[in-house]
Amino acid sequence: MPLLLKLILVHLLGDFVLQPSRWVKEKEQRKLKAWQLYVHVLIHAVLLVIFVADRSFIIGGLTIVVTHLIIDGMKVSLQKKSTKRLWFAVDQTLHLTVIGAVWYWMESPVIDIDSLNDPNILLIITGLVFLTTPTSVIVKNTISRWTPTSDHPSADSLENAGKFIGILERLFVFVFVVTQHWEGIGFLIAAKSIFRFGDLKESNDLKLTEYILIGTLLSFGIAFATGILCMYAIAK
Questions:
Q1: What is the DSSP letter of 85?
Q2: I need a surface site. Which of 62, 192, 201, 231 has the fewest CB within 10 A?
């Protein structure tokens, strides 16, 4: 496990902390001709030497460095403006897959999957999954009868932003409840109230205000109740 953590740390430092945004732009524009691409890979190699100072890791280190160059070269060569997000996900997935494979090859760890059969872990996973899309559907259908109609929908609103904000809120509330950090729930409610205050203050639509409040309280309530039920079931 220490080796895996070191490899992940090297990846985070090399790919994010020590890679200026101007390097990323240069690589996107000049592609394989950009010297930044090769310096970026060289930085990864140096970091591997620093953090994993072990001769037995030479082959593993070379594998990570060479595949990093291939993956990044493929990314800058094939990605377009419309596919940048997709290629970012592919790029990071491939890098982490190589790191995991090298770690597994070097240390041959015994991966215990019996923990997935632990009722408490299954309960937590079930609760987390329930609070994502299923709860979004429940909340949406419950308050659909009060959905306000507006002749001037906001053009500034991000697509599906409300859905993802709700999911993140519920997951935070669930984690705070299960870990018994009750103050975190208060902070979350206060933070949302501050951000929402401006919108509600500028809006003269009372129905919209009530609609938002009902949806928020219902969403928080379901997350809170789910967390309490999980705690009660685990305690038993």
A1: H
A2: 201
